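Input.
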Amino acid sequence: MRQIVFALLVAGGLCAAEPIVLNPDGAWCWFQDERALMYDGKLTFGSISRQGNVQATTWDLQKGRVGIFTLREKFQIDDHNVPGFLLRSDGRLMAFYTWHGGTAALREMYVRETVRPKDASAWTPERNFDAQSPDRFSYANPFQLSAEKGRIYLFWRSIDYNPTWTSSDDLGQTWRKAANHIYYQKGERPYVKYTSNGVDTIHFAFTDGHPNRPFKNSLWHAYYKNGGLYKSDGTFVRKLEDGPIQVAEATRVYDGVNSPVGEAWVWDIHLDKAGRPVVAYTSHPSPLDQRYRYARWNGKAWEDQQIAYAGKNLYKGEEYYAGGISLDPDDLNVVYLSSDVDIQTGKPNQSGHWEIYKGVTRDGGKSWRWQPITKDSKVDNLRPIVPAHHPGKTFVLWYRGRYQTYTKFETEVVAYTDAEARAGPY
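Output.
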């Protein structure tokens, strides 16, 4: 596979004035994590090009250089196929990616790892596995738990179209037989966002299914720890080995059946310093009126509220696609979001495009102070993400351009940060 390297020159050594183009051709879906990793002053993130190239882009913030490595050329042109990354305990990065939905011939997960620790300029040859799953694959979410002797867990959508897991005890060389860990009903598909403390716990925030189905989605939470599945308050449900948690057995964060502001779709989850989950998600009164919401577990109950207007859906045919919202993993009082309306009133904005905003709360999400990151844009700015352990107080990635559908887009990946970067050799 080929690697593209280009210089990133930042006037005055600072990169806070304008967004920085990191990949001139890229987009992503939001159900793979982590899509962006920070390590040793470098950022690696995943995206897919309009030609279907699955890519790992690395920005060395200290040297001010960017390298783009193509993990797989001319894959299916679909933004669902971007990789999820794992920074393994030995320092090597792993990239997991799969064909959206798959076919009989492409019912597999693909994986590559870096040749050297913390160096994304060279990767091992692609290999694949199916974990003996009988069904098609979508999405990739890898995590490693140090308390389980470095066991790697991989979550994706497969068996009966429901969330599926496998694990590896040899750094990803072999995998146990796949099984469900969340289940609604056969043929339906709970959508899940994952996060982990990297030690002994993995959290799940999920819906009943896709919001375009003839039932209404609520938002639910559960977690895995020491072999068991638990509700938010620590109530034990069952051992993971004994089968999946049913949706109704989890803790309901938001009631999408009876809410006047519509059903839910999940966008992000992270853990605060006390290990408590925080979730960002959308509710949908209508395709032309979507809302951003923010929920925190206080140790006894979920505190949940609407925080901003999201505007209309991105395009006809996907009535529940919003511009996107992301938590800052380093400070969960901070969110970044994309909206094509005034986020506080819901009225049309001046540009007519989706713009990026940073929000800060000091009272657990009850009130917010908003700062525009983009303004008067000529193109749309979509699906912000924030990597953990980032430099500076402000750090966000997104893609901008013309996004017509998840298989047709002309967009570039950019970053905005108040951190310092220097130019130099790659």
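Confidence is low (pLDDT under 50) at residues 4-16, 422-426.
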